[in-house]
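Worked problem 6 (solution included).
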Amino acid sequence: MNPTSLVGVFMNRENLLKLNLLGAIWGGSFIFIHILVPHLGAIGTAFFRVFVAGSILCGFLYLRGVRFEWKQNWKHYLWIGLLNSALPFTLFSYSALTLPASLLAILNASSPLFGVLLSALFLGDALNARKVMGLFMGILGVGLVSIDGALRLSEGVLPAIGCALAASACYAVAGIYIKKRAHHIQPKTIAGTSLMGASLFLAPMLLFFPVSGLFSFEVGAALLGLAVLCTSIALMIYFQLVKDVGPSRALTVTFLIPAFGVLWGYIFLGEAITPKTLLGCLAIVIGTALVIRQPRLKTAKFTKLAVQEF
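Solution. The predicted structure is:
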């Protein structure tokens, strides 16, 4: 799809710019994780990310007049925080000890593939030929990047890939939970409160996995980048996109994250870009495109509902 047709899909250049900016930000989140994990550990990186981002986002929403209704919905905030933040952020942080940032960004794009499979199992959504082909392409892509010779396969590589895929699956499980149990809560409210819920799960874990590294200027800058830019600000941009163009179109940011992840990994960390990496990335993106593509009538319905929510 060329830029002109993309502008037509997203109505104006401002939304197209927001979409690319969001892809660049989320693609860069794995760079910050890669910097932080050796100093803060997997638990520390995940905890400080959700606590700082959640505090900022909840404060911003409160000033905008949002009321969180903690008493009625605290259980939902805790469950969503566990599934959508605490678990996946920790698993990705653990994987970052072994895997390059570019590969993490590529594996992250498999989340919609898990989403369509789990939706078929637990929500009764039909698996048509297009979705099955998308799943096949996604599995092929994961296989290609997993056997890439540049990884120098060792005992820790395959478990790290498994953790990254489990993190992507967590996002899909969280989406199913929200659809079945928490669909009455506004998405922007869930974003802030679930981050604080995630911090409640992770804080006690610091007693068993304390931060042992030094807190330097580099670590502080990377933490602010991850928590403020890649979490708080990125979520605000995403919700604005959902409001302006609908959730289905906003979800196409998934296509951009692997590309930016590979690019940032090459520029800032000197990570190799191999033919298998590119082919695997392409296969996952094509598979994702096949499984998240919605019929026009359904997309229009989702867009109308999303605008009403905001």
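Discussion: The mean pLDDT is 87.
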